[in-house]
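To make this tangible, this section ends with a sequence with its structure tokens:
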Amino acid sequence: MISPVLANLTLDGLERLLMEHFPRVKTGKGALVNFARYADDFIVTGRTKELLEQEVKPLVEQFMKERGLQLSQEKTTITHIEDGFDFLGQNIRKYKAGKRHKLLIKPSNKNVQAHLEKLREIIKKNPALPAWKLILLLNPIIRGWAQYHQHVVSKEIFHSVDDAIYRRLRQWVKRRHPKKSNEWVTKK
């Protein structure tokens, strides 16, 4: 629990520094630079790639260096919003829809795979558990993940995750009851 607190204390002032160097523009074009942070994860958006590479990144690196930190090279990317990026388990991307643009936020593929792997491990480690106990183990994890992603575009992903969980549980039941019919397994 101390790590997020330390990260917040260490990163305090970064937003203020960025606003001092890149003040809000009143011309209707929006800010040149925006900043969002959650504990030790943060994103900086800018109007152009050149602005981010040549002005913002060196400023952030200097801020971090003064505090004995450095940007993670594998996590630090400069990308166009139409290519999308992952932040806090969600993928943020702007799509062209004719003349209009749509910003869609979805659960990231990496997050979905990590969730399914966690569920798979629980099912795999409990082959002899009664079904009701297995469900008691799985439900809070599934519910928590779904609640975290319920406010974004997640209908299709929820459907595919639901299907993957169903298939895993069906395998689990078939392994426990190999002589039972498919109809019996489906009912269970």
Notes: Residues 155-176 form the longest helix (22 residues). The chain has a mean pLDDT of 89.
